[in-house]
Amino acid sequence: MKVVILAGGAGTRLWPLSRARYPKQLQSIFGKETLLQRTYQRIRRVVSEKDILVATGANHAARVRAQLPGLPKHNILVEPVGRDSAGAIGFAAARAQREQPDGILVSVHADAWVGDDKAFASLLRAAQKTLGAFPDHTLLYGITPTYPETGYGYIQLNKKVVQHETHPVYSVKRFIEKPTLARARSLVLDATYLWNPGWFAWRVDALLGLYKKFLPKDYASLMRIAAARPPSLSAVVGKEFPKLTSISIDHGILERTDKRLVIPTDIKWADIGHWRSVAEMSKKDRDGNAVAGESVLLDSSNNFLMSSSGKCIAALGVKNLVMVETDDVILLVDKARAQEVKTVVAELTKRGAKKYL
After folding, report:
1. CA 166: distance to chain centroid?
2. Under 8 Å CB-to-CB from 214, ≥6 apart: which residues?
3. Count of CB atoms within 10 A of residue 319's CB?
4. Containing H/E element for 2?
């Protein structure tokens, strides 16, 4: 089994800490280790370094190498341009096809928080058994929702297919992408709906067959990448990868195939995609405030306040606020609108303020 960690993207909803050249997955948001390093160590419970791949952009490859010194250098899949998750996962499948064409490929994201590494390892191992019984299927994992999140996708369970020890396996009825708050509230009350954390698994040959069926031009490019060997490999990737469709694996493949299975789990998980999710995973005082740095808080509650420069944070009569201070930027946003921080980044881009990006 091989596992690919998707470590691309700029993480604009975690601006100003996450920047284009130094995105969230390469930063230490919880403790000393970066999100990428935490994900890597979690996967090492199941597979060795040689079976871990990291897909990332050219701008981030050097930092990935520095943060994961035990990872073989050729296991870092450097994308010359961004082509969304279908491009990154296809790249990993092309690489895995050389070594394990009938093996399992699992895809995870670098920027997630997981509360139980042992349970996560058990979920990864379940992929081997499940896809051994259903080799032409796509396997997903679904998280039991704990609140009405509008920023996540949802998976609806269909019928139970099989029971593997502690892991039941169901067929998938449908997907719902980022519902309204009213819809999310109803989904949380329905036990058939799960959050979609973006953890997927396939047999490598079955996955490439899905590219051939649904993204045939991409499949042709991926096969040319799979056939290439050093010293021509970099040139082939540079020529073929930009030809790939810029589309998510969800839209490009998952929503178009009917052979889908899902393993539900109540593992503690959060997509560290915006400041509200960081606040939820952070230690809080008795008033619900999460503070990173020295502080004096009076009559203030349910805030997330972070100073990376060492300044003392003082707050009076403030509620439901996110404040993030870096050397050059101060961000203030209502916690309920944390998903919208990327619009600030878009506005700065429009104004040509590159020094803040």
Report:
1. 25
2. 252, 253, 256, 257
3. 15
4. strand 2-6
How far, in Å, CA of 231 to CA of 182, rounded?
55
Name the pTM for this structure: 0.90
Residue corresponding to tokens 């050729």:
74
**Which CATH architecture fits 2-271?**
Alpha-Beta Complex (3.90)
Tell me the pLDDT tens digit for each residue of 340-349: 999 999 999 9
List, in order, residues 6 or more apart from 9 with CB less than 8 Å away.
23, 25, 82, 111
N-terminal to C-terminal alpha carbon distance within the chain: 38
Residue 263 has, within 13 A of its CA and on its CB side, a CA count of 28
- Which value, in Å, is the radius of gyration of the alpha carbons in the chain? 21
> Residue 236 pairs with which residues in a beta bridge?
none
How far is the CA of 262 from the CAs of 161, 168, 200, 254, 299, in angstroms? 10, 9, 9, 12, 45
Where b means 16+ CB within 10 Å and e means fewer, 58-68 reads eebbebbeebb
Residue 243: Cβ within 10 Å count:
14
Whether the link from the prior residue into 16 is cis, omega within 30° of 0, is yes
Residues 246-291 have pLDDT tens digits of 999 999 999 999 999 999 999 999 888 788 888 888 889 999 999 9
The Cα 347–Cα 34 span in angstroms is 28
